[in-house]
């Protein structure tokens, strides 16, 4: 009997989780989510928040979407930079007969002649924030990777006594291609290799400096310069296909470790980055991995959610993806500006970069302002530093180049939103000058760079729209929104004349609104509407179509409802959602990046249409916002390698939307008005606690609770803020940052009378 009771007691304790370590937010992140059929920037890469280094496996050929593909059972090598249009320094252990060539890793392995890539034992492949590992079958070792902001840390544990090599490659398959114009490897003693690679890329040129420390002296430095094989040398240099390898005689279970310091500034920067970030850890690989993990957990813990384990995994995975941008300045605050001049930041300064801010005002502005205002402030300082040195801010400063990707200037929205939310640790007068300059001066294309500013500003200013023979009709809509942002800042700075000018110009979206078709339609410089107009054609639109872009008036949805008429507005939008359900609200279900991708209705899989479900809050049907935002959260977003994001995740754009929408929040106009407010929808979780920042947001928690929430009970029956009923589907930012509690009562059917009370 006593034994039986003991067994019962132990069983109960196990079932209640007694003695088990509670999962932390970082434990819920699945870094393999969406890594099949994904972009160069998305893979199981080891890094830290805003790390320059995103170290991980590559296994595809060059071209669109190169990098890592989950379904391929080989690894080409492990490269350090997985930034948009940028790559750098691949490392790969090998025991096979030497070859400098690598063939196509996507094809079956056929021995040494196939190249130095290796098959992997897929069941051994493991990854978590800041860490990656796998067993390399043909290389005969276990590969482990971790990273700091500017450094990669490799650990290769060989299984048997063998002659081994560590290859260092510069010319390898990447998404947009690389052109190695000059490269050098130098042997420094018997345990250090240093060098640089001057690389031509899609936008301009960058030079990556690297210093590589080995935990054990190598026997020799060898390498290749195109077709020439070089053995036992002190230096290797050349262009195009240049690489190196060091040799070892390994013992069974011996670990060869490499610490790699990188810089875009100079060799001294690479050395200093390595000394500062990794020297304190010595050769303790596990400690570096633990540090990376803790950095991620500290960030992710700023929001706590209660709900199903599946939804927690989706939430923290998307939260993790939201911080996939990069730091491009060195630890000493030096950086290279877009014109290749070395600049020095004040103490504590950093320079950020990444993929474009294309429509990121719908999600990224919210996340940063609530839980990482320090990062948002640094973004503004980055942009003002670029303005200081070049005369322009930059929409997509990958590697701090003037890329101008998507030809929009949505960094303006981020800067204005920061100002309006009290995030102002910078020169606000300079901010105003930068924003005003962007809206008053024709954009330029610097030599060897992309675009700075608005390239079609002059014709837009003259005609009130961008004509179809000049550029895409979507330019008019982007410019109009940016004008609205500038107007709001002018108002706050009491610049009345500028306010009137920019606000007036923000109405230019109406100049392309066809009065009969009730839709955005391109027209030429003579004012003639486009002939043979097809609302689902991508012609004259940037990665979208007229049907989708008609809704793209984030600053004036009320005006759009009025022009279209509320009944037609709702009818057309409801039809679009009903026809898009079977495609998980992603036109990319047809084709990820070709014209056919634009033929459908709702396209949550690209940035131009991510506001669609929240439009019903403005047309008298907020219950449809609740219905469809919850449907997108469930259908569009997955948690497997094959179903993560049904579209182009870029560098956190899709992830950011999930985070804010699952909390029941959205910012239609990007939070740029003098009284920013959130659009409300149905939260995914039972309880959400946002730990607000102490410096900028008061430091009190803000709690969002739901009563009777479920997959069926997605409709808001009532809502209250700190016990007071809400009479509109909005929450003011300044009320949230006071701390408090927002409570939703949920039900299975819409309460169409909620906001009428």
Q: Could you walk me through the main structural features you see in this protein, from its secondary elements to its overall organization?
A:
With 757 residues, the protein is α+β, with helices and mostly antiparallel strands. The chain has 2 domains: 28-298, Beta-galactosidase, Chain A, domain 5 (Distorted Sandwich); 301-747, GH92 mannosidase fold. Helix content is 26%, strand content 22%. It contains 18 helices and 32 strands. The strands form 7 sheets. It has a 10-stranded antiparallel sheet. It has a 7-stranded antiparallel sheet with strand order 1-3-4-9-16-13-14, with no helix packed on it. A 6-stranded mixed sheet has the order 18-27-28-32-29-30, with helices on one face. β11 (192-200) and β12 form a beta hairpin. α6 (373-390) packs across α7 and α7 (411-420) runs parallel beside α10. The longest helix has 19 residues, at 474-492. Residues 1-19 and 589-593 have low confidence and may be disordered.
Tell me, briefly, the overall form.
globular
Give the helix tally.
18
Level-2 CATH architecture of the largest domain? 2-Layer Sandwich
Strands ordered across the widest β-sheet: 2-5-6-7-8-17-12-11-10-15
Number of distinct beta strands: 32
Distance between the termini: 62 Å
Please supply descriptive tags for the structure shown above.
single chain; 757 residues; alpha+beta; Beta-galactosidase, Chain A, domain 5; GH92 mannosidase fold; 2 domains; seven-stranded antiparallel β-sheet; 26% helix; globular
């Amino acid at each position: 009997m006593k034994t039986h009771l003991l067994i019962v007691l132990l069983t109960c304790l196990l079932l209640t989780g007694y003695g088990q370590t509670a999962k932390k937010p970082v434990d819920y992140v699945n870094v393999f989510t969406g890594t099949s059929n994904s972009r160069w920037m998305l893979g199981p890469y080891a890094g830290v928040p805003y790390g320059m280094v995103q170290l991980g496996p590559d296994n595809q050929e060059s071209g669109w979407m190169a990098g890592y593909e989950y379904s391929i059972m080989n690894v080409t090598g492990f490269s350090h930079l997985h930034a948009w249009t940028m790559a750098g320094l691949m490392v790969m252990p090998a025991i096979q007969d030497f070859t400098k060539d690598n063939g196509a890793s996507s094809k079956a392995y056929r021995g040494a002649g196939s190249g130095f890539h290796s098959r992997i034992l897929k069941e051994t492949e493991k990854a978590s924030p800041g860490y990656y590992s796998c067993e390399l079958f043909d290389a005969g070792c276990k590969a482990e990777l971790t990273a700091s902001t500017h450094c990669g840390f490799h650990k290769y544990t060989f299984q048997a006594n063998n002659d081994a090599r560590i290859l260092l490659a510069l010319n390898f398959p990447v998404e947009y291609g690389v052109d190695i114009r000059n490269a050098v490897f130098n042997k420094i003693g018997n345990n250090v290799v240093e060098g640089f690679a001057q690389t031509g890329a899609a936008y301009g040129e960058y030079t990556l400096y690297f210093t590589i420390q080995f935990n054990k002296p190598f026997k020799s430095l060898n390498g290749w310069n195109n077709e020439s094989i070089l053995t036992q040398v002190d230096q290797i240099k050349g262009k195009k296909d240049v690489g190196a390898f060091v040799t070892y005689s390994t013992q069974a279970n011996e670990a060869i470790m490499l610490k790699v310091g990188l810089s875009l500034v100079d060799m001294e920067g690479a050395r200093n980055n390595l000394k500062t970030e990794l020297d304190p850890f010595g050769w303790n690989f596990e400690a570096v991995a633990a540090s990376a993990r803790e950095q991620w957990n500290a960030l992710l813990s700023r929001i706590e959610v209660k709900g199903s384990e599946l939804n927690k995994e989706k939430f923290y995975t998307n939260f993790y993806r939201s911080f996939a941008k990069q730091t491009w300045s060195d630890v000493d605050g030096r950086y290279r500006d877009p014109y290749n001049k070395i600049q020095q930041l004040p103490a504590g300064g950093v320079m950020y970069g990444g993929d474009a801010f294309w429509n990121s005002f719908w999600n990224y502005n919210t996340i940063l302002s609530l839980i990482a205002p320090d990062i948002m402030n640094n973004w503004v300082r980055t942009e003002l530093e670029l303005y200081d040195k070049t005369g322009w801010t930059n929409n997509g400063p990958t590697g701090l180049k003037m890329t101008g990707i998507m030809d929009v200037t949505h960094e303006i929205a981020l800067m204005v939103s920061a100002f309006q939310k009290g995030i102002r640790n910078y020169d606000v007068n300079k901010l105003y000058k930068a924003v005003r300059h962007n809206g008053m001066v024709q954009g330029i294309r610097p030599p060897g760079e992309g675009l700075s500013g608005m390239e079609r500003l002059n014709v837009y200013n003259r005609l009130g729209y961008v004509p179809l023979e000049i550029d895409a009709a979507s330019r008019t809509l982007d410019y109009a929104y940016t004008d609205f942002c500038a107007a709001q800042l002018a108002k706050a700075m009491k610049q009345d004349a500028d306010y009137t000018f920019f606000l007036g110009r923000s109405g230019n979206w109406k100049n392309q609104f066809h009065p009969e078709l009730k839709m955005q339609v391109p027209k030429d410089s003579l004012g003639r509407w486009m002939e043979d107009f097809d609302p689902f054609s991508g012609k004259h639109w940037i990665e979208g179509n007229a049907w989708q872009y008609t809704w793209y008036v984030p600053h004036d949805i009320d005006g759009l409802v009025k022009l279209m008429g509320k009944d037609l507005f709702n009818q057309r939008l409801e039809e679009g959602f009903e026809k898009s359900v079977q495609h998980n609200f992603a036109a990319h279900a047809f084709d990820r990046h070709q014209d056919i991708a634009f033929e459908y209705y709702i396209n949550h899989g690209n940035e131009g249409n991510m506001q669609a479900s929240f439009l019903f809050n403005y047309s008298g049907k907020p219950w449809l916002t609740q219905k469809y935002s919850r449907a997108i959260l469930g259908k569009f977003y997955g948690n497997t390698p094959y179903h993560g994001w049904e579209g182009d995740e870029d560098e956190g754009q899709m992830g950011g939307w999930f985070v804010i929408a699952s909390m029941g929040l959205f910012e239609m106009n990007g939070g740029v008005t003098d009284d920013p407010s959130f659009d409300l929808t149905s939260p995914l979780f039972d309880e959400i606690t946002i730990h607000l920042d102490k410096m900028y947001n008061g430091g009190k928690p803000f709690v969002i609770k739901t009563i009777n929430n479920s997959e069926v009970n997605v409709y808001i029956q009532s809502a209250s803020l700190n016990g007071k009923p809400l009479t509109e589907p909005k929450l003011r930012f300044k009320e949230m940052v006071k701390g408090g509690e927002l409570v939703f009562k949920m039900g299975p059917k819409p309460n169409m009378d909620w906001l009428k009370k």
